[in-house]
Amino acid sequence: MGQKINPLGFRLGTTQGHHSLWFSKPKNYSEGLQEDQKIRDCIKNYVQKNMRTSSGVEGIARIEIQKRIDLIQVIIFMGFPKLLIESRPRGIEELQMTLQKEFNCVNRKLNIAVTRIGKPYGNPNILAEFIAGQLKNRVSFRKAMKKAIELTEQADTKGIQIQIAGRIDGKEIARVEWIREGRVPLQTIRAKIDYCSYTVRTIYGVLGIKIWIFLDEEIILLLVFPFYPMIVQKKTNSFWEHF
């Protein structure tokens, strides 16, 4: 039976970028990774405690960490940053102070910036949180998946695939259910496919949610090769100069 590779790691360096940008000596590399994981966990726990939403969606798409000798820059990409700011007006400053005390940043300054992403439900992490909230409220998994597909269609995506595994709807035997809408070309490297694996705890046990979202290839071509149209035009002009 063939096993599927992680779509994000498969496209790393082409259509996907790194979420941690820093260099380190080999002996200090593991410490840097552990520090990044602790920063991300601390931010997610803070947002989960202080951000009150009726849908249960925290809205964190990803957290990028950039490190220098004297600076740690943390960029939080959120779908609904207003909800965090309205519930805690000084939330970003409090979070920054908490992280500085937690990691004892004496020689390094720590900055936190919040960036809003366009079309939040086009991000698999936010969509997985939405489905998890529906399953916790005992909504049928089919209704939750169909509603998620409707939200994704509003974000102008080319295709989506959702998979839920576990004791679905409280059944005694665990099973896997999935649904696909549109195209999801997992073997095409130039295709921008965003992926998320999410775990949700229900009264019946743990459910695993996996989401693949396929975006437009033309947009990806301009993002990865921004000078591609200029090169094509230059080659075309030089070709006709010979006649």
UniProtKB/TrEMBL annotation:
Tree of life domain: Eukaryota
Classification via Gene3D superfamilies: 3.30.300.20, Ribosomal protein S3, C-terminal domain
Keyword Lipid metabolism annotated: no
Cellular-component GO terms for this entry: chloroplast; cytosolic small ribosomal subunit
Location(s) in or outside the cell: Plastid, Chloroplast
Domain KH type-2: from-to ranges: 47-118
Regions annotated as coiled coil: none
GO BP of this protein: translation
Pfam families from the UniProt entry: Ribosomal_S3_C
Main location per the UniProt record: plastid
Molecular-function annotations in GO: rRNA binding; structural constituent of ribosome
Entry keywords, A to Z: Chloroplast, Plastid, Ribonucleoprotein, Ribosomal protein, RNA-binding, rRNA-binding
PANTHER family: 30S/40S RIBOSOMAL PROTEIN S3, SMALL RIBOSOMAL SUBUNIT PROTEIN US3C
Family that this chain belongs to: Belongs to the universal ribosomal protein uS3 family.
Subunit note: Part of the 30S ribosomal subunit.
Protein name per its UniProtKB record: Small ribosomal subunit protein uS3c
Species assigned in the record: Capsicum frutescens
Gene that specifies this protein: rps3
